[in-house]
Every structure is written in C-alpha cells, then in structure tokens.
Amino acid sequence: MKRLTSFFLISAVAIMMVCYLTCDIFSIWDSRPLKFATSAVIVLFGLTVINKKESRFVSIGFIFTLAADVFLVLLDKYLYGVSLFILAQLTYTVHFAFLSGKTVWKELLKRIVPAAAAGIAVFAFGLGANIALPAAYAVCIGVNIAHAIELQHFKPCKNHLMLLFGFILFVCGDICVGLRHLPPDIITQNVSSVLYLITWATYPPSQILILLSTNSLKYKK
To answer: Measured between alpha carbons, how far is residue 120 from residues 4, 46, 178 in Å?
Structure first.
C-alpha cells in the first residue's frame, strides 16, 4: 500500500510540476496556487509517513518550509519567508546532529554564530535587511550542505546520499531566489524568468529526496 501511495505522490508531483512550469513558460495564468499546492502535497504526505523518532525533525522542517512558502509564494512577503527558512535549516541541523552522533547545541552554534555575524556585517555596510537576512540564511544552509557532504563521506549510504542531493537541489533553488531579488539593473527580466523556472524545477524534487532519505518508505519483502 505504501509503495502504491509513494508512486502516486511522485506521479502527482511530476504532473503538477509539468502543469505549473508550462503555465510559467507560456504565461498562461498565475501558477502560484498550484506551486503552493505541490509543496503542500509533499509536506502533508511526509507528515503522514515519517514515523521514526530520529526523523521527527524532518517533519518539523517540512512544517517550517511550508509556512515559508505561504509568505514567499502566496503573500510575496520575502523577509518573513526567509526567516522561516532559517528556522527550517536550524531544524535540519538537529536532524544532521542526530544522524552523525554530534552534540546538538554545538552544531546549532556552528550555524547561528556565523549566520548572525554575516547578517550583522552585511547590515552594517548599509545593504539592508533584504540582503542581510538572506546572507544569514546562506550561512545556515551552507554549513548544512557541508555537514551533508561530511555525513556521506564518513557514513556512506543510500539515504545519506539522497539527503545530500536533496540539499544540493535545495541550494540551487535558493541561489536562484536570492539572485532574483537583486536590483533590476543587475538581473534582467529575462534572466529573472529563467531563474524562477529553475527554482521551481528543483524545489519539489529536493523535498522528495529529503523525505526519501528518512527511509520512511522502506518496504519489507
């Protein structure tokens, strides 16, 4: 039953992605509600199937991610969305700590301290919160990516590899989002449109890979 459900999840997400990417490419209609629905389907499915104690923080991370999508996708509140994404990354930090057997509070400090320093430094240069907050977020997800690489290197397995690829796709989408919020004299409208497509071509697969990395869909023969 779970095998069939996961097949329908991936198929449904793929169909929804094709629909909203087609709408974006040909400017048919506003696809933001469909994009949010795609994220919601993945998150709700994840909350249903993730039942392992060691993966509970992935569920919390999904909740923060979906909440961020409310502000970024539906309400166009950039800073609120980025703030929630920072919380999501800190939640994933706890997940990484459990997977690697590291002390949670030390791992959190490795993200929070340099992230705060980066945000304060950027703000001090007069670049404003629109750049300072994403800079802090970039540090958090950057350290998480490094941790994912380290985890796969020292404890190689299929689940850790999927987690790593999931975060790589996550970063690809985040970089595109950050670039799209640069001043229009730096990023043209055409480039912004391409970056927007890349964001939504990589974001749902990243969430599915993170979900699959929890091994919640493992089946006994």
So the answer is: 49, 35, 18
